[in-house]
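Researcher: Here's the sequence for the chain we discussed earlier.
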Amino acid sequence: MRNMEVKKALGLYFVMGTPNSGSQDPLAIVEAALRGGITCFQLREKGSNALEGDALLGFAKKCQALCRLYRVPFIINDDVDLALAINADGVHVGQDDEQADSVRQRIGPDKWLGVSTHNAQEVQLAQSIGADYVGLGPIYPTSTKLDASAVVGTTLVKEIHTAFPDMPIVAIGGITLATTGSIIQAGADGVAVVSAIASAKDPQYAASDLSKTIHSLLE
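Model: Thanks. This is the structure I predict for it:
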């Protein structure tokens, strides 16, 4: 049951923090994306001018309130203390962040745990420590993560889907509306995007376009 719930939530997974919002109001972007049909939101507050302390706590609570309004899971990137403080729905960690097994112990069995992976070995490890899903990528070159790993393409999506059929997979990295179809067809349960929505002139319209494409392929 949880596995199916997670897979459904990965359809259109929006990742954003205030440094990704450019000149737009970050909270307005989140709400527009929710109106446009995103199925999960991850607050990834990293990079230059990232919020900290009370400012971060306040922004996270506002994002969480919006996600609850639209009944969309609210995930915190890396910051386990923040996730526990506001009772977020889950935590997503990278390979260089706090070890996923200790994160699972800290957040307990009920919250979702996502792990960024780049190869089969990392997926195997994520599965063994009880990750609910893996983020797989970067599929294409990306400018939003300066320390991104080597591009893996859709071939790896297909390989991981075949080798780990029960593991929910969300693909990430340089994904656009034009490339979404091939990623879903390769076996991903959804796509995670940052700039495809955050940098769009009309984030709601961008999210809606992506949502329609994904739904048409997953039905």
